[in-house]
Amino acid sequence: MLSIRNLHAAVDGKEILKGIDLEIKPGEVHAIMGPNGSGKSTLSAVLAGNEAYEVTEGDILLDGENLLEKETEERARDGIFLAFQYPVEIPGVSNLQFLRTAVNAMRVHRGLDELSAVDFMKLAKETTKQVDLDPAFLKRGVNEGFSGGEKKRNEILQALLLEPRLAILDETDSGLDIDALKVVADGVNALRSPERAILMVTHYQRLLNHIVPDFVHVLAGGRIVKSGGRELALELEERGYGWLGIKDSDEVEAG
Amino acid sequence: MKTAPTLSSAFLEAAAGKLPAPLQALRAQRGKALADMPLPTRKTENWKYSSRYLKLTDELAASLPSGRNSGPGLAVDGYHVVIHNGVLVPEASDFPDVDGIEIRSFVDLDDDTAQHLADRLDNTLDNNAVQMARLNTARFEDGLYIRLRQDAVLDRPLFVIFEADAEAAGSVYPRIYVDAGANSQMTLVEEYISTGDQTALVDAVTEFSLADGANVTNVRLSLEGENIHHIGATGARLLGHARLDSHCVGFGGPLRRHDLQVRLEAPGANCRLNGVAVTQDKQHFDNHTTIEHVAPHCDSEETYRNIAADESHAIFNGRIHIHKDAQKSNANMSNKNLLLSTGAEIDTKPELEIYADDVKCAHGATVGQLDETALFYLVSRGIDRREANTLLSMAFINELIEQIPVEAVRETVQARLNRFIEQAFEGA
């Protein structure tokens, strides 16, 4: 489904990704782990099409099509979803209006009729339950005044509504207490399906206790330095990043 | 030395029509005074940014023929009064029949009431600052006199639809005077619309005199077409614990000017002034507001927002004057502006004059662009870029639109703003 080949990317002229290769097939769950500054969030941003990042070399193919030639909104309609590490607050745009506009943009792209306000409200209310979010949050401004956990749940709510082919979760576990983590993980697990792939970007392995990945990759210095199965994450938990020859500023926490 | 241009005599030679004698006399008196009034130039401080849009050609001096009405305005629940080219159209109007409330056309007033009104017209406005309002008083052919007796409550909003019918070039002078007795209440929605495609000038003046405890909501919608030059003034004076809740929404044009002057004259008087103006292409919109804190213990809260696209020009000038005796005044003023293109111009100027020492007075003005991070967030969900831009621009003003207390107006205005902003992003 997704092929990343020799991807190099820079921000403000500074090269962050230095040759990433990654193949993701439908139904697979991949975890990308790595210390701070390894380029994890850059990879997510580049996949979603954030223009602050410049791809200097390499390709990203989604179902054989060159993703890099597409605008962010086209990528989204083709099924790329990025759950933001820091979801943006947009006062004045109601969450409901935002979600409905997005869902209808997707539906039109998929050749479906737009949902009426009433039908969408039903669907949205139903889906809020799945992420344990009070439906009252639909009426508020997008992420406006939401707690960290509420913002992350709102991201998962969007993923559930938009039904992406590839969901990228950028540090979705950061800032969550264990209960919120579980709710978010349940939401992500609900997303799992044979047609859909998930790419989790995380510093810590604790999320992986709840969402069990098929593959784990260690990103360091802008390259994938090691790939393996789930056991690699456990090993990282036990031994930190040091044994891979990686310096981690957060070593104490990560261990 | 070049002398400043004055108003052409063509503007001052219009017949008074059927007005009662006291109003005819007032009109004639103002006309005389106007003959020597210098017209604003770019050296006139309160017209600095807008004098270049002011074009008072002789062609505009003619009164536009009145008496017809080509269509209704907002079809919503409330009382409706239609003023066509400055003259009331009785057959299109639906007057309230509520105890203690009189709504009458100027031409229908008996001489005593007309004299009472003539003694009051212009008394809410600082005529030195609102030069062009004087032209209205010299030229109006009719008007609406609204009188609320003590404790009278108008149960539904009163919509006054001012239609400028510009089949030919000329000018119209809409006028309202609201005399709100103690503890009376009303909501007045002024809707300025136009038909026809010739160049026309609308010079509109609305005044409010609020006795103790009166509570008036005023919504002013400036919706006229591209051929209309609009100069408007609203004046209000408030006695003890009276409240004015003002919502001005304006779409740009070749000339759009609104002066809003509020005087808080006795303790407890308070006002909320909200304003939204949107401009695109080469349009203009200029809001000048003045709040006079004359008495102690008065509150004012003012929030204006502008969105300027393309090569348009939006201006906000907000003056707060806290008089020497106005201790414990509480005044807040905020003006935020959104520039949608590098070719657009925004001029914003807060003016604070404070002569009392125990007051709270805050002001802030910003000019910014759409937030790229928010835009990325929206498009990353598959939302079309133009729609995302529109959502974010609407978000900038929605907070104010949502405070308009008449639901039907709110919805109509929201839809119109949305269309306008979508247009601004067309081809962008």
TrEMBL record, chain A:
UniProt cross-references to PANTHER family, sorted A to Z: ABC TRANSPORTER I FAMILY MEMBER 6, CHLOROPLASTIC
Recorded superkingdom: Bacteria
All residue ranges annotated as the ABC transporter domain in the record: 2-246
Classification via Pfam families: ABC_tran
Family from the record: Belongs to the ABC transporter superfamily. Ycf16 family.
Native source species: Marinobacter halodurans
The keyword Hydrolase appears for this protein: no
Name recorded for this polypeptide: Fe-S cluster assembly ATPase SufC
Keyword annotations from UniProtKB, A to Z: ATP-binding, Nucleotide-binding
Keyword 4Fe-4S among record annotations: no
From TrEMBL, chain B:
Gene designation: sufD
Naturally occurring in which organism (per UniProt): Marinobacter halodurans
Protein name according to UniProt: Fe-S cluster assembly protein SufD
InterPro entries listed in its UniProt record: Fe-S_cluster_assembly_SufBD, SUF_FeS_clus_asmbl_SufBD_core, SUF_FeS_clus_asmbl_SufBD_sf, SUF_FeS_clus_asmbl_SufD
PANTHER family on file: PROTEIN ABCI7, CHLOROPLASTIC (PTHR43575)
NCBIfam families: sufD
Domain SUF system FeS cluster assembly SufBD core residues, every copy: 169-396
Segments forming a coiled coil: none
Any single Pfam family the record assigns to this protein: SUFBD_core
